[in-house]
């Protein structure tokens, strides 16, 4: 929902904190995921992720969440699916070139990032989307990766 | 043996140390000269002569010609087609490639093809949305964004690899460019976004139309503070300018062309003029004169859509090239003239008396 996702960006710092607390919790559950089997856990976790992130961020389930680097504004809501910042068509009032009724996702992202503790991660170049991962759980993928590389986990901050 | 009707070849210059491309644009910029680029409005036609005719207008005035890629999401001759025709007679071209219409497989193939045809410069763009053009029912692709495209193109050139990691035998020797719009929100982020593009591989930047000098000055100052204008990995910035046809057209552009910021003062100046078209040209010259004085600016990109003939006058009057005559086919050797250049038209074509 548009209103909810704008509210989330206004409270980007809170959500950053929530995510940074939530992630280690998920990682701690690694033995559980392994016992269930990541493949079997995929469907229920994906459903929960889709429900929660769909409500809060209008998540499109790209499967490679970048919210912590985009000021808590989901880049997949940009009609051009830009992952690295705004295009040159942003209107003077900060609205989208393609959807004039919508605030530019990246204008929102910049404002959100300014509120976040690690907001400067918005300056890092993001990799292009891997379309094979669409409609898969970003949470499980990240948890699995972090559980396998515990050292990287400590360095990487709130990767989701 | 040399045939008399041998076609004029496109030239490739040796790549100098510290350069990445065999092109003239990189040479001019790295030599510290004020570079001028302009763009061709690609024809809605399969006629090669039309492309050469449109390029001949710029003979002796520009260092490279942009071939737009479905600009404004309208269908025209492809940028690779235009570049290929132009490089055949030796013009320096800037291949524009937009993420709107192709996925990464097509774009990487196109980069190789264009480089093989002699294009030495690549401008990586996101592209206008399809809603802006004549095919709003088309599928917007946007598989990559301009940043990823830059990174992939750099990988192709410097690491000889496709994004997949597969090896490229002979890499494309291309000078990499990107666009920036310092005049629209989020203004505060724009210099940082430029830094991001430079980190992704951008070596030159062409900006959206500039009608607001204070905003450009502010932007350039911040870009300088970020250290992007020094060192071997510096970026060359060419602000975009162009003549406005009238106050009415300025207002129309402001409201209908995404991303063009025209301050009220500019519209008023045009409104107050007797000859608005002439005033639009004057305004463009004034902007050019102001832009050249801004520290860190390396050149200008003149976009004179449907007023291409004014480019020569704008450059002559401002004296921006300081006597320099950029290369064009036939500059040094009249036998190499662009066959569609007015100078190359054979006299036999004139009506015969009697």
What does this structure look like?
The complex is a heterodimer of chains A (160) and B (354). Chain A is mainly alpha-helical. Chain A has one domain (2-156). Chain A contains seven helices and no strands. In chain A, helix 2 crosses helix 6 (138-148). Chain A is globular, with a radius of gyration of 16 Å. Chain A starts with a helix and ends with a helix. The model of chain A is unreliable at 153-160 (pLDDT under 50). Chain B is an alpha/beta fold and 354 residues long. Chain B has one domain (24-330): Alpha-Beta Barrel (TIM Barrel). Chain B contains eleven helices and eight strands. Chain B has helices at residues 24-30, 48-56, 79-88, 104-116, 146-158, 190-200, 213-225, 247-256, 264-271, 276-292, 310-318, and strands at 35-40, 64-67, 93-98, 121-125, 175-180, 204-209, 236-241, 299-302. In chain B, strands 1-2-3-4-5-6-7-8 form an eight-stranded parallel barrel, surrounded by seven helices. In chain B, helix 9 (264-271) crosses helix 10 and helix 10 crosses helix 11. The longest helix of chain B has 17 residues, at 276-292. Chain B is globular. In chain B, 48% of the residues are buried. The model of chain B has no long low-confidence stretch (mean pLDDT 94). The chains are: A mainly alpha (160), B alpha/beta (354). Chain A binds chain B through residues 79-92, 94, 97-98, 104, 106-107, 110-111, 123-129, 131, and chain B through 99-100, 104, 126-129, 131-132, 140, 142-148, 151-152, 163, 179-181, 184-186, 188-189, 192-193, 195-196, 199-200, 208, 258-259, 261.
């Amino acid at each position: 929902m548009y209103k909810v996702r704008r509210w989330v960006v206004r409270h980007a710092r809170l959500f950053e904190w929530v995510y940074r607390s939530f992630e280690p919790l998920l990682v701690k559950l690694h033995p559980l995921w392994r016992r269930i089997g990541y493949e079997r856990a995929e469907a229920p976790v994906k459903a929960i992720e889709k429900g929660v992130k769909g409500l809060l961020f209008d998540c499109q389930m790209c499967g490679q969440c970048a919210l912590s680097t985009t000021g808590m504004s989901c880049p997949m809501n940009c009609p051009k699916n830009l992952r690295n910042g705004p295009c040159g068509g942003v209107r003077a009032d900060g609205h989208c070139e393609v959807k004039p009724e919508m605030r530019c996702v990246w204008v929102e992202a910049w404002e959100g990032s300014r509120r976040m503790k690690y907001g400067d991660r918005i300056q890092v170049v993001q990799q292009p989307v891997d379309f094979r991962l669409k409609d898969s759980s970003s949470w499980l993928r990240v948890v699995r990766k972090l559980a396998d590389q515990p050292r990287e986990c400590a360095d990487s901050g709130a990767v989701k | 043996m040399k045939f008399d009707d041998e076609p004029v070849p496109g030239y490739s210059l040796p790549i100098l140390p510290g350069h990445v491309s065999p092109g003239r644009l990189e040479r001019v910029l790295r030599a510290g000269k004020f570079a001028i680029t302009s763009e061709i409005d690609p024809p809605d036609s399969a006629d090669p002569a039309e492309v050469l005719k449109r390029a001949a207008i710029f003979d002796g005035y520009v260092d490279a010609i942009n071939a737009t890629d479905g600009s404004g999401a309208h269908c025209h001759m492809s940028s690779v087609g235009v570049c290929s025709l132009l490089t055949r007679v030796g013009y320096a071209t800037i291949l524009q490639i937009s993420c709107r219409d192709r996925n990464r497989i097509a774009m990487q193939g196109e980069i190789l093809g264009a480089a093989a045809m002699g294009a030495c410069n690549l401008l990586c763009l996101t592209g206008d949305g399809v809603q802006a053009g004549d095919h709003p029912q088309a599928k917007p692709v946007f598989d990559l964004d301009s940043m990823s495209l830059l990174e992939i193109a750099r990988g192709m050139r410097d690491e000889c690899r496709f994004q997949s990691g597969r090896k490229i035998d002979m890499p494309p020797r291309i000078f990499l460019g990107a666009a920036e719009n310092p005049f629209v929100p989020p203004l505060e982020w724009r210099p940082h976004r430029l830094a991001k593009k430079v980190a992704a591989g951008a070596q030159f930047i062409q900006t959206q139309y500039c009608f607001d000098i204070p905003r450009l000055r502010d932007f350039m100052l911040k870009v300088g503070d970020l250290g992007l204008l020094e060192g071997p990995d510096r970026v060359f910035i060419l602000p975009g300018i162009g003549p406005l046809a009238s106050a009415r057209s300025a207002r129309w552009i402001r409201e209908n062309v995404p991303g063009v910021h025209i301050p009220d003062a500019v519209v008023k100046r045009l409104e107050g003029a007797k000859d608005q078209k002439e005033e639009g040209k004057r305004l463009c010259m004034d902007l050019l004169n102001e832009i050249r004085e801004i520290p860190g600016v390396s050149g200008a990109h003149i976009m004179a859509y449907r007023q291409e003939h004014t480019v020569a006058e704008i450059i002559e009057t401002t004296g921006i090239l300081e006597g320099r005559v950029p290369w064009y086919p036939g500059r040094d050797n009249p036998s190499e003239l662009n066959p569609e250049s007015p100078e190359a038209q054979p006299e036999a074509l004139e009506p015969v008396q009697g």
